[in-house]
Amino acid sequence: MASKRPNICFFFTDDQRFDTLSALGNRVVATPNMDRLVREGVAFTQAHIPCGTSGAVCMPSRAMLHSGRTLFHLQGAGEGIPPEHTTLGEAFRASGYCTFGTGKWHNGPAAYQRSFGAGDEIFFGGMADHWNVPAYHYDPSGRYDRTCPWIENWQTDNTVKQRRCDHVHAGKHSSELIAEAALRFLDSRQAGDRDPFLLYLSFLAPHDPRSMPREYLDRYDPAAIVLPPNFAAGHAFDTGALQIRDEKLAGFPRTPAEIRRHMAEYYAMITHLDAQIGRVLARFDALGLTGDTLFVLAGDNGLAVGQHGLMGKQNCYDHSVRVPLVISGAGVTPGVRCDAYVYLLDLFPTLCEVAGIAIPSSVEGASFAPALTGGEACGRETLYFAYTDLQRAVKDRRYKLIEYVVGGRHTATQLFDLQEDPWETRDLSALPEQRSRLAGLRQELLAWRERWDDAASPWGQRYWAGMPQ
Prior knowledge:
- The protein is of the alpha/beta class.
- It folds into 2 domains: about 375 residues, Alkaline Phosphatase, subunit A; about 80 residues, Arylsulfatase, C-terminal domain (2-Layer Sandwich).
- Helix content is about 25%, strand content about 20%.
- The chain is built from 11 helices and 19 strands.
- The protein has an 8-stranded mixed β-sheet, with helices on both faces. A 5-stranded mixed β-sheet has the order 4-16-17-18-19. The chain has a two-stranded parallel ribbon with strand order 3-15.
- β18 and β19 form a beta hairpin.
- α5 packs parallel to α7.
């Protein structure tokens, strides 16, 4: 790695699926700036989250990222990060980094304030109208308690609620708002500044409600979009999460025309987001900071958008638990694809190792820093996934097992050969020749349950009570 401590620029996206970068195989979506990061760095093509303990999967996902904790070792479902769990920004700040955070923060004001010594355009929520984001300017006292009436336009009843903010930039898109806050921070750096910085940009896109400048939407003709092989009019059985908010974003049954429209809007949001990332990268270039900076691009969770008849991320399919993860810049070997199994929560110890910062004792993730310079990533052989008290899954290098408990009883089993069936369309669990494989994966599921203290969690207690012993 670089001989001196690098700056860190962290681009974090909201609801961006792993397969939405042109450089990694999706030739429909235009992502030239994300593609630049892929060319200049290491793309982790098997990065995951463990799913989540809330319908708002992004909340525990972000808590895991910023604490390095595993899913059932968070505070609740990640609503906040307790003081005994050192945050990523807190560790860098204590080590002399200037830390600046802008955009979405879904884990409580106290954890934000511990993490960042500066910031702007801070959004303490899960989702917002992209053109009217209720935001805060940075408050050194940490008192983010002002409220203003705000119309939540995406709700069907159009109710007025009290939303926490001290201002709204009406008519400014969220992706531009966040990028411009970062640009102001970069411009404020003086030539003599010696301390490295951690710049954290947490975008609200491409989360719904999907809106973007018209020119970006016009690039995608819904009629020309090819539906994925696992598109379905509806899910084959009840997952326990078919009537939540995300699933009501499209009609029942799903129609090809409506899903193509959703996909066009999704891609348009990503392309607009990509353009804002490009503005930030261009400023790094102009200021001569690129060579001293490590760039991270990651997403908080995936999204179905019509796959398996689903719209949301409240499931254990790859489209929802796999995320984009690219690291490039100072000291990183360019043009590498790494298929090691890693979790997003592994970023915390990885970035600490790269920056020469002691990994806090509260962190449970595993560093994969050697993979950034041509070494082997200490990836896992299997991965564990859990959605609330409804679903558990385990994935090895070829197969995935998903078990469902709905209404307090075990209702379904799925087994997929990910090598032969990457779209997870052919359930093999009923085949006699798969009995021994099922038994082995179920044992692995139980081993992970114990390793992560799942059975002791409120979600695990309910889930495992419904599973045959």
